[in-house]
Write a structure and sequence with these properties.
17 strands, seven-stranded mixed sheet, single chain, globular, Aspartate Aminotransferase, domain 2, about 400 residues, 2 domains, binds pyridoxal-5'-phosphate, about 15% strand, Aspartate Aminotransferase, domain 1, alpha/beta
């Protein structure tokens, strides 16, 4: 008899996006003439930078002739891309990362979801609340948690690190020892950013506890404040205790093109039952080469083009466009008397709705025909908040904010 992985039975259905879709459909059926403006999901709307498109086309042409055709590439990514990443994203900022510590992949969602596989199932995992749900669900699937606790609205077995108004959605260190810590800055959904001093505390904690930090920097390109870190490797000691996920999705509009990478420094260690140190780089290399067969050649060439002078200018312009949307949304919501986090170094604006998350969502949907994301969908601490995304055209953002201003 084929048996299932029982841990999947513990998973809570993702009510968030199905519930949003249900409410949006009902609204559209009742109001077929109203044009909805969607500021809910975190998908980009603008075209790929021209430099990427040119490189993409040229690489596709190379595939058309036998002399330049490429088959399977190196599982970890082509050297041309790994070297460009190490040089521009890290060494240029004073962070020590070598090309052979970069693992190119088809998404930070897969990487941040898969990385836990190389660790024991009896470790203690800390996640922030609110949280990007991938970190939670993949650990539930792996059997690192107990059941869903209805009363608490959380899984048993996780250590939840609460984000709230008092800490500005930058959770404090856990009170008990934990082994694996998921951090995401700039944060999805809360838009909060951690300073170097705050990250240093986490690095020191990880060193003291022989823990590992999985640092998701999918939104680093939105960091404008020069004092804020783009990478955890800007923090002294991080190479020993942190892995970093990056993505071209939000940086360069690759959500549909698919290219990302994970940095695993050679100093990073995890331990056997007997306390012997094992290289995380070696473990991840083994996992990655066994289960992954590299990103397509044209996509890697398109990603490489992000680092050309033309590409850098275009990416900057792309980010500035979304940040201008974010600034506009934040200013309008603040003028309406709502407290906001994010939108300055992040594409997300996290708004205290002063009411129930879903109630506020319904108000915006039914009265303004604008779709946002209820914060409660990202965890217990998200209750009372909504997330507005800046990924849309400025014309749509302007129209949405005008509608919202009239109904709030
Ligand atoms: C925090 C975070 N990490 C990772 C991802 C996924 O990135 P990718 O498109 O590279 O899979 C997202 C996407 O929304 C995200 O919000």
């Amino acid at each position: 008899m084929i048996k299932i992985n029982e841990n999947y039975q513990k998973l809570q259905a993702s009510y968030l996006f199905s519930n949003i879709a249900k409410r949006v459909n009902a609204f559209q059926q009742a109001n077929p003439d109203k044009k909805l403006i969607k500021l809910g999901i975190g998908d980009v709307t603008r075209a790929l930078p021209d430099a990427c498109i040119k490189a993409f086309h040229a690489a596709v042409d190379e595939m058309a002739s036998e002399s330049s055709f490429r088959g399977y590439g190196p599982e970890q990514g082509y050297d041309f891309l790994r070297e460009a990443i190490a040089k521009h994203d890290f060494q240029a900022r004073g962070a020590q990362v070598e090309a052979d510590e970069v693992f190119v992949s088809d998404g930070a969602k897969c990487d941040s979801g898969n990385f836990q596989e190389i660790f024991s199932t009896d470790i203690t995992v800390a996640v922030t609340d609110p949280v990007y749900p991938v970190y939670v669900d993949t650990n539930v699937m792996a059997g690192r948690t107990g059941k869903w606790n209805k009363e608490l609205g959380r899984y048993d077995g996780f250590v939840y690190l609460d984000g709230n108004k008092e800490n500005g959605f930058i959770p404090s260190l856990p009170e008990q020892p934990v082994d694996l810590i998921y951090l995401c800055f700039p944060n999805n959904p809360a838009g909060s950013t951690a300073t170097k001093v705050q990250l240093k505390e986490w690095v020191d904690y990880a060193k003291e506890n022989k823990a590992l930090i999985l640092f998701d920097a999918a939104y680093e390109a939105f960091v404008q404040d020069e004092t804020l870190p783009h990478s955890i490797y800007e923090i002294e000691g991080a190479r020993e205790v942190a892995v970093e996920f990056r993505s071209f999705s939000k940086t360069a509009g690759f959500t549909g093109t698919r290219c990302a990478y994970t940095v695993v420094p050679k100093e990073c260690m995890a331990y056997t039952e007997a306390g012997e140190a094992v290289s995380v780089h070696t473990l991840w290399n083994r996992r990655h080469t066994t289960k992954f067969n590299s990103v397509s050649y044209p996509v890697q060439r398109a990603a490489e083009a992000v680092y050309s002078a033309e590409g850098q200018a275009q990416v900057k312009e792309l980010i500035a466009y979304y940040l201008n949307n974010a600034k506009y949304i934040r200013e309008k919501m603040e003028a309406l008397g709502y407290e906001c986090i994010g939108g300055e170094n992040s594409p997300y604006i996290w708004i205290d709705s002063k009411s129930d998350s879903w109630e506020f969502f319904d108000r915006l949907l039914n009265n303004a025909a604008v779709v946002c994301t209820p914060g409660a969908g990202f965890g217990k601490c998200g209750e009372g908040y909504i997330r507005i995304s800046a990924f849309n055209s400025f014309a749509n953002v302007e129209a949405a904010m005008e509608r919202i201003s009239k109904v709030l």
